[in-house]
Amino acid sequence: MTHQAAGVTLADVQRPVVAQLDAVTADLRAIISADFPLIEEVNGHLLQMKGKLFRPTLLLLASEASGARDPRAVRLAAIVELIHLATLVHDDSVDHSSLRRGMPTVNALFSHQISVIMGDYLYSRAIIELVRLDDLEPLRVLSRVTNEMTVGEMRQLGAYDALSFREADYELLIRSKTASLVAAACEVGALRAEPAWRRALRAYGDALGMAFQITDDLLDYTEGEAVTGKPSGQDLKEHKVTLPLIAALPHLAPEERRMVQQLFLASEPPDEEVAQVMDMVARCGGLDYARERAAGYAAQAEASIEDLGPSASRDALRDAIAYAVERRR
Amino acid sequence: MTHQAAGVTLADVQRPVVAQLDAVTADLRAIISADFPLIEEVNGHLLQMKGKLFRPTLLLLASEASGARDPRAVRLAAIVELIHLATLVHDDSVDHSSLRRGMPTVNALFSHQISVIMGDYLYSRAIIELVRLDDLEPLRVLSRVTNEMTVGEMRQLGAYDALSFREADYELLIRSKTASLVAAACEVGALRAEPAWRRALRAYGDALGMAFQITDDLLDYTEGEAVTGKPSGQDLKEHKVTLPLIAALPHLAPEERRMVQQLFLASEPPDEEVAQVMDMVARCGGLDYARERAAGYAAQAEASIEDLGPSASRDALRDAIAYAVERRR
Question: Is B268 within the bounds of a domain?
């Protein structure tokens, strides 16, 4: 069964739950508000750099599509986004990133100290809200996933060695870092559904999250090209090994491998070298291979939900697959 | 009712629960173990710098003394110590501290990155273990307290302005930073007891935690003196305002206040200036006032548990008060 969805936008995916997404944003705002001026200041900044609400969207769609709509879905979606936000704040602090979604990060705008404390503040608020639901099940799923994401962050620290970081390591990394929370969002949306649908939606989220992250890593090789004609290569500049490079490596000539090694040893690799390695990766099939893997996960995601009853939300979940692998940013 | 306990040691306090404390350490070790080499390495380091187990001790004693011993007490004590450990790892990262309990901190020995991730890892493990107990009550208490501690860390950031940080700010700070978790440890030990005992033990823990922290801050003014004849003054060097200084300030001459201001503006205040300010604080009654406040909280702690039935654990809880305010380190 194939589903035609070329040119799908995020707005298409969100259409069935767009009103609820507004409620999610309002709920998130209420949950994190604090009677403490500095926290309110950081909150204001975080709410301004509001993301795409991809995980809340999936949770709400999963809840609808599972056939057993959960009345807590908006609250659960806000909590999942809050956990995601807490993770981003700490990730940016760990990576010393200065920009996120085109805005200064908390560590850049405030301080390293404040970003560590804020991440803890946001995460513990999420746990408090989960406890208030008086149900251990979402807590069980989300506490496990939060722990898995921290292990993913540890794995990320090992992803800076071009010649030893293998595809299996990469899969473990992106599963723990990205797919785990996407899978949890879908599963938590389906907690009131039949166990079979809960499992199906979890499997869907896992495969979708994998496809999403592989595409993200691909875009770092292609994105600039499509938009401005100039490749970005940020990951290579930061010495992050992702699938395109891993796939290309075995097909490089010894001299080319030495160039890769050199780039990974340079503290600030020149743009020219980055561009050369990107060309090599493309020429040796690294991009094609990554696209193929993303497509494989996309097919897996599609298969996971093919037995779900028909609904606008099920269609939107399918559109989400197309969106995940075809988006340009 | 007064209780004579001069010269009480921590070993005296721990005597009734010493076997269980060994079980707590073993349990903690098992809970944090991970199938990931880097995490195991950090764990090994953290277990080496094992603290006094003050909070687990109080939890176990509270459980015994409450008259309704909780069979989960050892596990709960391990979880409380784990939350404490997670907090320390992030606090050291926030403060850029290089030593803790005479050993290098995680941020110093590994890296800032690893300490942020490890704190998250440890805290999320604690939540997983709480969820596994299949009871929302300890989760309710401990998630609230963890959030309160993050607000305390935010308050700490405001405690670097000698002339504007008041006693009321200081009280809020140490209550959220220290007393909240001590109170929670005592309360969680008494979850199976009558509500009146649960409340009493919580109140005991709150007052004990306040007395403990005020004493800690006092020791920074007196500790070195008692042991080596030379005051330490680490807090002043780091521009941390604590109760002795707050209490002394109104009694300083204008010229002396200017000296304090100067010390707080110097990026690395000379030892001589630190010693001068410490003398001024002592001369103007700052130490006496802080001792008085600690004694007041100690009396409050004692009063909170005076109606508990007699037991070796209740006596140990009383000894813990004497230990908190009379210890030299």
Answer: yes
